[in-house]
Design a protein that fits this description.
The chain is about 35% helix and about 15% strand. The protein is an alpha/beta fold.
């Protein structure tokens, strides 16, 4: 069975990830994987190093970011802590998506920065083309609503993302790092997707941070690995730096 990490933080996820890119790619290769994503928090600092190192070691790079999302990026007084924003994982499936991801991350710093580089739904709708979205971790909008036992809010959030990215480009993300709250959300997430008129595909992810803690079994896969194969095939000819490096 093919397997690919689609939610990965490197040392460029400041105060969070600890993995150095060469070590990460070497570990991916050691585990027999042929591809890997990079989804650092709110930034794309590491994508060039990641791309070059992955190509050097024969690994297919999937470029992304775990962005911070808010209702209105101009508002500077919303909530406390993570209540100010949601997490959302974005992966570039082609060159258009890569440029749109760069635009979103840049706008997060230049126009939406408030504790974190944030963007809002209006900007997301404008620059969604070529992007695949995962609902992210416990700090994702769907997961946070489920943690509050608000199924309607979770369902509406999932439908909103699917409307923005398309039903084939939005995936509900489930994680299990041994936290009781994550285990509880697994059943709630399944119930949420089943209540949708057209159920959204689901993936299982391990938000990798230290290089050596990643498990050897499949971490991110859908039934028949259709999602991974589709991403890899669509990204097969996607080499944004090929003309420059």
């Amino acid at each position: 069975m093919a397997f690919t990490h689609l939610h990965v933080h490197s040392s460029y996820s400041l105060l969070d990830g600890s993995g150095k890119i060469p070590e990460m790619i070497a570990r991916v290769k050691e585990l027999g994987m042929d591809s890997c994503a990079l989804t650092d928090h709110g930034v794309m600092y590491g994508v060039i190093d990641f791309y070059k190192e992955a190509k050097k070691q024969g690994i297919h790079p999937i470029l992304g970011s775990e962005i911070y999302l808010t209702e209105n990026m101009e508002e500077k007084s919303l909530g406390k802590g993570e209540a100010r924003y949601y997490h959302l994982v974005l992966l570039a499936e082609n060159e258009t998506g890569f440029h749109n991801l760069m635009k979103l991350v840049s706008l997060g710093f230049t126009e939406g920065y408030y504790y974190k580089p944030r963007v809002d739904y209006a900007v997301l709708e404008k620059y969604h083309e070529g992007l695949i979205a995962l609902s992210a971790c416990l700090a994702g909008e769907v997961s946070r609503a489920l943690r509050q036992n608000d199924y309607d809010k979770a369902k509406n959030a999932a439908l909103r993302y699917r409307e923005i990215f398309g039903k084939e480009n939005f995936f509900l993300e489930m994680q299990d790092h041994g936290y009781p709250e994550q285990f509880r959300l697994l059943r709630q997430m399944i119930f949420t997707t089943l209540t949708l008129q057209t159920p959204s595909p689901m993936i299982f992810c391990s938000a990798c941070r230290p290089v050596r803690s990643c498990r050897t079994r499949t971490e991110c896969a859908t039934p028949a690995d259709s999602f991974i194969l589709r991403v890899k095939r669509k990204c097969e000819a996607f080499s944004p730096f090929a003309r420059r490096l």
